[in-house]
Write a structure and sequence with these properties.
The chain is α/β, with parallel strands linked by helices and 331 residues long. The protein has helices at 2-37, 78-87, 106-114, 130-134, 139-152, 178-194, 242-245, 247-253, 274-287, 315-329, and strands spanning 65-70, 93-99, 118-124, 156-160, 200-207, 228-232, 261-266, 292-297. Strands 1-2-3-4-5-6-7-8 form an 8-stranded parallel β-barrel, surrounded by 5 helices. The radius of gyration is 33 Å and the shape is globular.
């Protein structure tokens, strides 16, 4: 019996050692699991961040858009709101002119967005040579501008060096070679694209050849660098007509570009036939399948080419504008 008790004691001791090893091994496994997972309960996968909204250009409008420039932009949106109140027309494009080195006006762009309009910025290279822009010496400014446009996150229409076929700007005909203008334009577009500014619609804007050089194709940057084309021209006499002021320029541009086209800056002066000229402006723009007409609504009073263009100063012109714009845009 004594021998059997000893064997039994040894067996219990062996079983105890095995049990200890099992407990130790189990504790070790649990510790490893805790270290790896941080807990012994099932983990919930984190919620992924929302996907960024892709940047897009302004779509080509089905009906022509009415645009406006008002003195005071981009400092205030109030004059544009007053224009809407006077005409009954909510502009789809609002314009401001931007000096070189002036930053993008995000606040104005946001105000335009809140009023369902696209902002059109006319970048004016004043006080800088186009050769230096093409050489990259303004890249810091351009990258900063592009970053602000990207951060805005909505479509922006940009034009650079408008009316370059006229001789009244330093970047234009007789002052800067056309090849230099083209090189500067392409460089600017390249900087914006490198910055990811996919929300920019590039508008190439010339002056009507009725009042400027007719050699337009030499200023053309190429279809890969332009999205829309635009024409500037003003009715300064009662004899001015759409066919004389715009049609030859439209025909010329369409020989080398199929891009959507708009009247980027226009107005009818204080002529005896102002109401009928306003009517045909919009009717002919629509018949020519143009995508927009921008009215320059400013009082200048400085000679034939700088008249009082404001609609609000003429009840008959105001009524004609409202009727013509409403009919042309399908509103």
């Amino acid at each position: 019996m004594g021998s059997m008790r000893g064997d039994d004691s040894q067996a219990r001791t062996a079983i105890g050692r095995v049990a200890v090893r099992w407990v130790t091994t189990g504790a070790l496994a649990a510790a490893i699991l805790l270290a790896v997972t941080g807990c012994l309960t099932p983990l919930t996968a984190p919620t992924p961040p929302p996907s960024p909204v892709p940047l897009t250009q302004a779509p080509v409008p089905v009906h022509p858009l009415v645009g406006v420039y008002e003195h005071g932009a981009p400092g205030s949106y109030s004059p544009i709101a007053a224009f809407t109140g006077a005409t009954g027309i909510t502009p789809g494009i609002v314009v401001y002119y931007s000096s070189w080195k002036e930053p993008f006006s995000t606040s104005f762009a946001q105000a335009a967005l809140a009023h369902h309009a696209y902002v059109l910025v006319q970048l004016q290279p004043e006080g800088v040579s186009l050769a230096s822009i093409a050489a990259g010496r303004s890249d810091s400014y351009l990258r900063s501008y592009a970053a602000a446009v990207v951060a805005f996150g909505h479509p922006v229409i940009l034009s650079f060096g408008h009316e370059m076929n006229g001789d009244w700007y330093s970047w234009g005909y007789g002052h800067t070679p056309a090849a230099t203008f083209v090189a500067a334009w392409r460089h600017i577009v390249g900087v914006f694209r490198a910055a990811g500014a996919a929300n920019v619609t590039w508008l190439w804007t010339v002056n009507s050849i009725a009042g400027a050089s007719s050699a337009l194709s030499q200023w053309w940057p190429g279809a890969a660098y332009v999205d829309w084309t635009g024409i500037d021209g003003y009715y300064v006499r009662s004899t001015d007509s759409f066919s004389g002021l715009f049609s030859p320029t439209i025909a010329d541009i369409r020989t080398f570009s199929s891009a959507p086209m708009m009247i980027a800056e226009t107005a009818v002066g204080a002529t005896p036939d102002r109401a009928s000229q306003i009517d045909t402006l919009f009717a002919d723009a629509r018949s020519q399948q143009l995508i927009g007409v921008v009215w320059f609504d400013e009082k200048q009073n400085s000679g034939l080419y700088h008249q009082d263009w404001r609609l609000e100063d003429s009840p008959s012109a105001l009524a004609a504008f409202t009727a013509a714009a409403t009919s042309a845009t399908g509103a």
